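Input sequence (378 aa), recorded before submission:
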Amino acid sequence: MAGNVRRAAVFLAVCLAARAAAAIQDGLLPNGNFEQVPPKSQLNGTRLMGRYAIPHWEISGFVEYIGSGQKQGDMLLPVPEGAYAVRLGNEASIRQQLTDLAPRTHYSITFSAARTCAQAEQLNVTVAPESDILPIQTVYTSSGWDSYSWAFEATGSVASFIVHNPGVSEDPACGPLIDLFAIKTLPPPKSSTTPGTDNLLKNGDFEEGPYIFPNTPWGVLVPPLDLDDYSPLSPWMVLSSTKSVKYVDAPRHVVPRGARAVELVSGVEAALVQDVATVPRRPYRLEFSAGDAGDGCAGAMAVQAYAGRGSVRVPYQSRGKGGHTRGALEFTAAANQTRVVFVSMAYNMKPDGTLCGPVVDDVSLVCTRKRAARRLLL
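Predicted structure, token format:
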């Protein structure tokens, strides 16, 4: 009997190890950069003719295969990485089957997009049953390319990932360019691990977030989503109508603490928000770092933080070379749940005219009554 139990345990361990080994890997999706070219027989100029013309992808509608440096009239069509990208015409879509997903696990998709001739372009991103419209009309880089993130919860081991252009232009060739598709497994949010604190906020150091492409210098945008959607920066949410915040990393930016932070690039039009369980009438202290990402964003900055019925404004004079200051807000909770909000109170721009703003990092929320009780016990 004992031998049977041991054999069953070994078999279960082997199965679990095999499942872990088969799990989807973080990084580029198969042919996620479109560098595996379609056969010449599947191209009519730039237009892709076959449904399966691009290896590992399925297309529908007017889809073009764009080479780096290609022109449309007098406009140069850049490619962010490698030699090729794809353009989606009106009502066109591209899809890929995602495999080896773990059910009930959250994943983020990162991809790059650039608008062409249309102004109010959007992209509809879907992994059934979830679907969202991502606004891409605001450009945050001088190259015209931005990286966007989106998250979903897997309902099974296989899912169909679709990017669709709902069409806002009369010209079908005015759709957005897309490139560089990557996936990342999102672990369950956990409280930050600042020594000596009991941080009630989860992911307060922003170390867990969407995939950032190693060869792109502009970070990843976290767009606004409905409250019931899954955030790629969970449990932080972005509240806005069309604007985003930017997720940045230490290799290409100055980060106050750790490896990642959030840059508030949209002024008062986008707020970074997390809801936290609190006890009414108890005192709390919110602390955070505010500074600049060392990306040339210079000038007067200000981060406004809200929690409960309190607020604090933390000014920061940036030289665009990195640095930060600490802000703090003490308040008394008024309800069982308190919303923590960060927003930039200024519109900042780099010398090239692109939007930028202050970084927020190393955020903690502690109950000061517990802290005082602990000191008395000691």
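Checked by second reader. The first strand starts at residue 27 and ends at 28.
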